[in-house]
UniProtKB/TrEMBL annotation:
Keywords of this entry: DNA-binding
Official protein name in the record: HTH tetR-type domain-containing protein
Superkingdom as given in the UniProt entry: Bacteria
Keyword match Lipid metabolism: no
SUPFAM superfamilies xrefs: Homeodomain-like
Gene3D superfamilies reported in the protein's UniProt record: Tetracycline Repressor, domain 2
HTH tetR-type domain segment(s): 2-22
The keyword DNA-binding is assigned to this record: yes
Lineage: Bacteria, Bacillati, Actinomycetota, Actinomycetes, Micrococcales
Organism: Microbacterium suwonense
Length: 169
């Protein structure tokens, strides 16, 4: 229906958007911005917090700075099926940042010869999965977290996960 209303073929539509949900939200392909990778590498915060922020920066590359952030948030609030795309983007963002995490973990463990490459890979996978979960939680609590200027919900979600992990009682 979308392609027909736009006067284009379905094939042409899917050359530009991988799904109708992406078209509805105006999403662009994810990538790791150079500035975000550099901030992660040079950051002085703990690895968990830096991984969460890097995941969010990658997800935000999908959202153009077009002034429609509030409209996207409203669509996400009113059409719960769009949340599935958020989960997909979170997972994909994690896959994109995993090499950056492996690089950082490798750099940190160069002095410890007892650490195996598989241990580093497993740690990076676990870290990217937890970071993605924190970001998804922040989106569920506050769909306007898509906005590049909104960090309160991400900070709050990170603190909550840290508290639950450290003090599960």
């Amino acid at each position: 229906m979308i392609a027909a209303r736009a006067g284009i073929s379905t094939r042409t539509f899917f050359n530009y958007f991988p799904s109708k949900e992406d078209a509805a939200l105006g999403l662009q392909p994810l990538h790791v911005p150079d500035h975000a990778a550099a901030a992660f590498r040079e950051g002085d915060g703990d690895l968990f917090e830096r991984a969460v922020r890097l995941t969010m920066e990658v997800i935000r590359t999908a959202v153009p700075d077009d002034g429609l952030g509030e409209r996207r948030s409203e669509l996400i609030r009113t059409l719960p099926e769009l949340r599935g795309r958020l989960k997909h983007f979170s997972t994909t963002a994690g896959e994109l940042i995993e090499p950056v995490l492996i690089e950082e973990l490798t750099r940190r463990t160069l002095i410890d010869e007892d650490v195996h490459a598989q241990d580093i890979h497993d740690a990076a996978t676990a870290l990217r999965m937890v970071a993605g979960t924190v970001v998804r939680f922040a989106f569920v609590k506050n769909p306007s977290a898509w906005s590049g200027t909104t960090t309160e919900s991400l900070t709050s979600a990170t603190a909550l996960f840290r508290e639950v992990i450290q003090n599960p009682s």
